[in-house]
Design goal:
412 residues, mainly alpha, 6% strand, 3-stranded antiparallel sheet
Length: 412
């Protein structure tokens, strides 16, 4: 519930007595998962080391496929990628939207900023340095939480899917309590993956102009291409907005520090006024940082996740078009075989297999795309409402802050 008392808003938004230990309860709401509790997966803990993050994956289940009802394992990012690749490479899941793989943990930007801050310590006041360090530590913590959330969402999407969760590799990932011995790809494997991507891109270009026999899928193809372009642009603009709020907060640190330093130099009646003004900018800095954090969580993260999820939906349409192309090629091969009166039975079998594959992937894909739309609309509606309520709450707090600061300055 939103508070209608400006002072309550200020107390809530500006409170900083928080532990620096990462809390994994703050999740990025990006997916609408089912209420089925037969298989529940979460990341109960995570440990950040310099070159890796260790995730503790906790599972509770009533399914008979598992040996225990509750258990935990420790996994690293490479093992999440291994699991994602198993789904992508398995033709049985060709008709499903495979949840996008979580992005690689990347704390280099935050570490670089902390390093630069340390190098520039002598050029700023002790108070300015302390505040800047707090901001960067908070940024690092937010990045860590988002990294954990994206890995958790990936597993929860699979666990909530009635078909994907039945895969043997997923059960191994959740239940096998030893290291999966998954290493990072070497240069040869990365180059092979690059060539595969190039081949896929070229194939997509060749299939792009192929007319679909089903108007539903033709409409979905046009929509997803336009949707992906627009949501990618929106994500970039949302990130720019968040960065601007963070830059404003950083500017307030310098202004506040300068006013406090000036107050110590003046040592007159003006010092009280300058200290009060500096305190106002410090509170505004905290509020601006909270605004940036909430917008990043409710808007930027939502856009970024569905940009990646829409890419996964486009991959599904590509796989279906590939099946359609194979089916049409099989039809042509059967016609040639009948004209030559050679290998007719073999061609008929190939044509029948291609048709069955195409019909199967089409049937599943319709359901998956419908579910994708429902999930997307629900979560955008929820997160945009949350974002609007937070904007109102922040605005009230901002107004109250200005009133309080003006009153304090009058009394100074």
């Amino acid at each position: 519930m939103m508070s209608h008392d400006g002072m309550d808003d200020m107390a809530d938004l500006l409170a900083e007595e928080k532990s620096q230990k990462p809390s994994l309860k703050d999740r990025s709401d990006t997916v609408d998962l089912t209420t089925d509790t037969s298989l529940m997966v979460d990341i109960s803990d995570a440990l950040s080391e310099r070159d890796k993050v260790k995730f503790t994956v906790h599972t509770k289940t009533t399914l008979p496929d598992f040996k225990q009802t509750e258990f935990s394992v420790v996994r690293q990012h490479e093992e999440f990628i291994w699991l994602h690749d198993r789904y992508i490479e398995n033709e049985e899941f060709g008709g499903y939207i495979i949840p996008p793989a979580p992005p690689r943990p990347d704390f280099d930007a935050s570490r670089e900023k902390l390093q630069k801050l340390g190098e520039g310590e002598g050029t700023m006041t002790k108070e300015e340095f302390s505040k800047m360090k707090q901001e960067l530590e908070a940024e690092y913590l937010a990045t860590f939480k988002k990294t954990v959330a994206m890995h958790e969402v990936f597993l929860q999407r699979i666990a909530a899917h009635p078909v994907l969760r039945s895969d043997h590799n997923f059960r191994v990932f959740l239940e096998y309590d030893q290291d999966l011995s998954v290493r990072s790809k070497n240069k040869k494997e990365k180059f092979g993956g690059f060539l595969k991507t190039i081949t896929k891109s070229a194939d997509e270009v060749m299939l792009h102009n192929q007319k679909d026999v089903d108007e539903f899928f033709e409409h979905q193809k046009v929509f997803l291409e336009e949707y992906y372009t627009r949501i990618k642009d929106s994500t970039s603009k949302a990130d720019k907005m968040t960065r601007t709020h963070k830059n404003v907060a950083d500017s307030y640190i310098k202004i506040s520090g300068g006013l406090v330093q000036l107050a110590t130099i003046e040592n007159t009646d003006l010092s009280k006024f300058l200290n009060s003004l500096g305190d106002g900018f410090e509170k505004a800095r905290k509020l601006e940082g909270r605004i940036a954090s909430d917008q990043d969580l409710k808007i930027s993260d939502t856009l970024r996740y569905y940009m990646r999820d829409s890419s996964a939906a486009k991959d599904l349409l590509y796989r279906r078009l590939r099946c359609l192309s194979n089916y049409e090629s099989a039809n042509k091969a059967l016609e040639r075989a009948r004209l030559k009166n050679k290998e007719i039975q073999q061609s008929e079998n190939a044509q029948q297999h291609a048709r069955e594959s195409f019909d199967h992937i089409s049937e599943i894909a319709k359901s998956e795309l419908a579910d994708f739309k429902t999930r997307r609309v629900q979560m955008f509606r929820k997160n945009l409402i949350d974002a609007a309520e937070l904007e109102i709450k922040h605005s009230k707090a901002h107004v109250q802050l200005l009133k309080n600061t003006i009153q304090t300055l009058k009394e100074a």
